Amino acid sequence: MTERQYAAAGVDLEIAEASKARIARLVESTRTELAAGAVGSFGGMVKVPAGYRRPLLVMSTDGVGTKVLVARDVRRLDSVGEDLVNHSVNDILVHGATPIAFMDYLAGAGLVVQEIAELVEGVARGCRAHGMLLAGGETAQMPGLYQHGHFDLAGTIVGVVEEDEAIHGDRVAAGDVLLGYASTGLHTNGYTLARRIVFDRMGHRVDSYVPELRSTLGDALLAVHRSYAEAVRPVLPRVHGLAHITGGGIAGNLVRILPKGVRAEVDPKAWPMPPLFQLIQRGGRVSDDEMRDVFNLGVGLIAALPAGAVDEARRTATAAGVETWVIGVVRSGTTGVKFV
């Protein structure tokens, strides 16, 4: 098959080459002292930072799900790239890790150079904000597998933590206080249900202005997934456990850090449910139980910490611009999460 036939089949090699050149400049903008090897190599290389006695690498892979459909409709693609990085940073932050490298994977069909560049610019911006190297990635045009103009975005993060400082949740104990950190919205979870309700059932469009949200629906849905690194890192030595509230909601994620013999009791009245979640619940007539199973409900991270550390943790979060609430307590009992 010649190159022209390949383009007719849906894969344009000229677009691929132009995209690589744009991406290379973005990758170069994230280079840190930990970078090794050349941009564009087959594998990304990163040095382990000096000064660790027993460095433990912490890795995570995730995507941004059907939030990409909202980004496509709004024509604001860079936001989901930043979402991807912040989500990933949080996933290793809960183990006490500092991010050192990231790799992205973009697959789709019919994407043009500008669209690819916007997506990777969001990733690069998120990496620069965390002093993290974008070590490489992959862009694949796959017509037939993806509809024209559709894409998926995923990434892998690498972080490092001193082995004896890693957070596993094993220190969570009865008497610990549960501190909730405010989310900026849905973050990167629950968009399949949210889209079905607000667009299909309620008849809104991405440019619909919703007074209770004080913004268009598209702007509200594309609020960037918050990174909690600045709000939490200074108090990590005092934290017993951290849960990133993603798919599965508060109960589905908080239970992952509870050791045997303790349960978490969460008071849903301890923080205000943001208007976007109220709109979704009302518009879809969604039960409280299902809302809790699907969405973060305004709490994107939960820390379990001793009562004596709560004030410091709240001051640190406030200084970073993140609102917090004491939302519950850890008690002895059968392992699980209960809303009280």
Overall description:
This protein is an alpha+beta fold and 340 residues long. The protein contains twelve helices and 14 strands. The chain has helices at 3-8, 13-28, 67-74, 78-93, 113-129, 191-201, 217-221, 229-232, 249-254, 275-284, 288-294, 310-319, and strands spanning 35-36, 45-46, 55-63, 98-108, 133-141, 151-162, 177-182, 209-210, 215-216, 241-244, 262-266, 299-305, 324-332, 336-339. The chain has a six-stranded mixed sheet with strand order 10-12-7-13-11-14. β1 (35-36) and β2 form a beta hairpin. The longest helix is centred in the middle third of the chain and has 17 residues, at 113-129. The radius of gyration is 21 Å and the shape is globular. The N and C termini lie far apart (64 Å).
Which descriptors would you attach to this protein?
340 residues; alpha+beta; six-stranded mixed β-sheet; four-stranded mixed β-sheet; 12 helices
Topology:
Blueprint: H1 3-8, H2 13-28, E1 35-36, E2 45-46, E3 55-63, H3 67-74, H4 78-93, E4 98-108, H5 113-129, E5 133-141, E6 151-162, E7 177-182, H6 191-201, E8 209-210, E9 215-216, H7 217-221, H8 229-232, E10 241-244, H9 249-254, E11 262-266, H10 275-284, H11 288-294, E12 299-305, H12 310-319, E13 324-332, E14 336-339
Parallel strand pairs: 4-5, 11-14
Antiparallel strand pairs: 1-2, 3-6, 4-6, 7-12, 7-13, 8-9, 10-12, 11-13
Helix pairs in contact: 2-5, 4-5, 6-10
- Percent of residues in helical segments? 25-40%
Helix count equals 12
Distance between the termini: 64 Å
H/E element order: HHEEEHHEHEEEHEEHHEHEHHEHEE
Question: How would you state the average pLDDT, rounded?
Answer: 93
Q: Any low-confidence stretches, pLDDT <50, length ≥5?
A: none
Proportion of β residues? 15-25%
The assembly state of the depicted protein chains is: single chain
Structural shape: globular
Strand order of the largest sheet: 10-12-7-13-11-14
Number of strands: 14
Largest sheet, in brief, is: 6 strands, mixed
Structural class estimated from helices and strands: alpha+beta
As a whole number of angstroms, the C-alpha radius of gyration is 21 Å
